[in-house]
Amino acid sequence: MTSETLRPPETGEPAPVAPARRVRPRRRSWRQAVRRDWQLYSLAVLPLLFFLVFRYLPMLGNVIAFRRFQPGGSIFGEYWVGLRYFRMFFADPTFWQVFTNTLVLGALTLLFCFPLPIVLALLLNEVRTRKLKRFVQSVSYLPHFLSIVIVAAMVMQLLAMDGAVNQLVRATGGDGVPFLQRAEWFRTIYVSSEVWQTVGWGTILYLAALTTIDGNLYEAARIDGASRWRQTWHVTLPGIRPTMVTLLILNIGTFMAVGFEKILLLYNPLTYPTADVISTYLFRMGFESSNFSYAAAIGLFEAVIGLVLVLTANLISRRTVGTSLW
């Protein structure tokens, strides 16, 4: 051996270090996770029970849409009839009338009740007087907390022959109009009451979304010479676009389920041509005519259409806007 091979390494040279093995954290099982955070998981028990009892278990009753159901018999029907009840309502002219009314009322509700909360939120966002802003918010939120029965009673009192609206019509030289007995007035009455009751509450989410927009974006827009309208169009609306898309998809999901309670309280046989919708029609078929299988088939058809609308809206939103529910 030479002296070079026996020479110890110089003190200035670092000794070679073996690469450290990367230790992956051990994944806990679901039992360990539940045992550790059982207090948090216990908070989800009641909501899960609610959805299980009132949302999922009732789905089993959809089987009577394909079976003959008789009151007092088996809850799952007596015998199999296939698509008989579906063919019945597809051939029923009354069903297509209520289906058209549902589409018209749903489209009008979506047309007015979706964009107006955005407009109101943008207007409130420009108000600099705090007291005025709180007052407008309180006044616009209040109708949401009123019961549907109270809202319907107020509408009926205002539009009665001796109500405030007809008194105003007579004061201007006109004749009293039986608004609630005229089919051509029902859609206007319903949509107007929906706007009054829901628009103020709908602004809450948009006002919360507006607070998340970076103020530096507005400063940069002002430096570039953008007006308030340009700032709203290029900064504010893109900032709340995810919230807008999410609420739009949710509203489309309830497109077919037009306000059953309010329509049931406001309509009457004289306004059936424009007021009768799928939900009220199947209510009459199920509880007044005791034709539960026929009503179940109509309800299943309505639910399938709602599911298709939600999936379609979510797919279009994901591909065009880049925002979706899932």
Uncertain parts: 1-6
What is the global morphology?
globular
> What is the rounded distance between the termini?
72 Å
- With helices defined by DSSP (H or I, 4 residues minimum), what is the helix count? 18
* Topology as a string of helices (H) and strands (E): HHHHEEHHHHHHHHHHHHHH
Order of adjacent strands in the largest pleated sheet: 1-2
Give a description of the structure.
With 326 residues, the protein is mainly α. Helix content is 65%, strand content 1%. The chain contains 18 helices and two strands. It has a two-stranded antiparallel sheet with strand order 1-2. Helix 5 packs across helix 18 and helix 8 packs across helix 11.
Layout of secondary structure:
Elements: H1 3-6, H2 30-36, H3 38-42, H4 45-56, E1 67-68, E2 79-80, H5 84-90, H6 93-113, H7 115-126, H8 130-141, H9 148-159, H10 164-171, H11 183-210, H12 215-223, H13 228-239, H14 241-253, H15 260-266, H16 272-275, H17 278-288, H18 292-320
Antiparallel strand pairs: 1-2
Which short descriptors sum up this protein?
18 helices, 1% strand, 326 residues, two-stranded antiparallel sheet, mainly alpha, disordered N terminus
Please summarize what this structure is.
The protein is an all-alpha fold. Helices cover 65% and strands 1% of the residues. The longest helix has 29 residues, at 292-320.
